[in-house]
Amino acid sequence: MFKKSQIETFKSLKTPFYFYDMDLLDKTIEQVKLHGQSKGYHIHFAIKANYNFRILEKMLEAGFGIDCVSGPEIERSIEAGFSPDQIAFAGVGKTDEEIQIGLDHDIFSFNCESLQELEVLNDLASQSEKVAKVALRLNPNVSAKTHKYITTGLHENKFGIHPDRFSDLFELLPKLAAIKLTGIHFHIGSQVTDLESYRQLCERVNEFQNIFEGKGYNLQHINLGGGLGINYKKPEEEAMPNFKSFFELFDNYLDVKPDQEVHFELGRSIVGQCGSLISKVLFIKEGVSTHFAVIDAGMTELIRPALYQAEHSINILTSDKEPITYDVVGPICESSDTFRRGISLPEVQRGDLLAIRSAGAYGEVMSSGFNLRKQVKAYYSDELVEKAVTD
Ligand code: LLP
Fold first, then answer.
1. Which residues hold pyridoxal 5'-phosphate (predicted)?
2. What angle do CA 269, 274, 276 make, to 5 degrees?
């Protein structure tokens, strides 16, 4: 929960804004180090989840690498201090310019998703007189049992190379002199809460590895992607996933060859729970069967409820009155601009502050300028007092 002094400071800040609990981020990172890095696993932070420099600083200190999906993400990672040999570059539609950025920096791995991409990468690499290191993203046809918009590992999804293309792939690879195959890559989806999906992934990875070995390829690394989900129903620390059982599962089920590296690309599970969107109640409106609490944050600041029907927990920070039932809605001209329906919250009035929790991943970075809304500010628990004074 927020400290009283923090809530007092929030009252002096222009809402809405993002607030990051840096102590919780530290604690989360400690868990990843304790259960993942200690096993020799390489962790890449999925910068797409949150690209704030203050957050990236923590990932750098932790010794994590970065997982990118665009040229600008590669550039930002380097600006934040990451070494190019810690950068994996995934994405089903990399432009020539983006590929060139990766080549110019000699990144750790291009995670390639199609045969045509391999050919283009090979051409561009040979023009630059470079050899690009490649991990092939393979489609394992494993269900992540998550929202269909964030499921990526099924054959019907656009991601990864389908096993039906393997024979063409094995014909093509020896012709690509400017490519060095270093690994295989997977990512089954995001907000995965059933670890059974990862066990199935391990089975598929083991099978694929044998196929590649049979063709004479000794893979230096396996990249299992990210996707580990958090508990959006629980606050803060309790929202954190069980990293111990996550990493132990791979320890138990994945066949790792001697000297082979195992990589992960975690985004949400590291940064999700430490962020909140702080907003103010603008109006209370009586609906037919509900009270609308109209707040000053909208889907422009946090699109997850509108896009994935995600339910973020909401805490009222400045009222402890008896609870009543609300629909918490934003100001945007879309009915999907609704954070929660039929939620029981302490009675609020105009001016009360509330926190929309676990918004640290895919929150601020997915904000938009729809309705000409301005980008909101971010504050960090370890510098909040100083910021509040200067703002
Ligand atoms: N690796 C690859 C190749 C990915 O595409 C992603 C996420 C990750 C790693 C990191 O996944 P994570 O550990 O954060 O689940 N906007 C959606 C999530 C989209 C995830 C896209 N890819 C949401 O708000 O739920």
1. 227, 265-268, 362
2. 120
CA distances from 212 to 133, 154, 173, 206, 222 (A): 16, 21, 12, 10, 12
CATH code, domain carrying 268: 3.20.20.10
Q: What is the pLDDT of the chain when averaged over all its residues?
A: 95
- Distance between CA atoms of 288 and 277, rounded to whole angstroms? 28
Instruction: Write the residue with the smallest CA distance to atom 22 of ligand 1.
Output: 190
CA 37 to chain centre: 19
In this structure, the answer to whether residues 312 and 239 fall within a common structural domain is: no
CATH label of the domain that carries residue 333: 2.40.37.10
pLDDT tens per residue, range 278-326 = 999 999 999 888 999 999 999 999 999 999 999 999 999 999 999 999 9
Q: Find the 186 Cα to ligand 1 centroid distance in Å.
A: 12
Q: Whose CA is nearest to atom 24 of ligand 1?
A: 362
- Residue 102 shares a structural domain with residue 207: yes
Pair (281, 213) in one structural domain: no
ipTM score of the complex?
Answer: 0.99
pLDDT in tens, 136-153: 999 998 888 888 787 887
Domain that holds residue 129: 22-272
CA angle 364, 48, 30 (to 5 degrees): 90
**CA–centroid distance, residue 188 to ligand 1 (Å):** 9
Same structural domain, 155 and 302: no
Q: d(Cα 18, Cα 380) in Å, to the nearest integer?
A: 8
In a domain, 389, yes or no: no
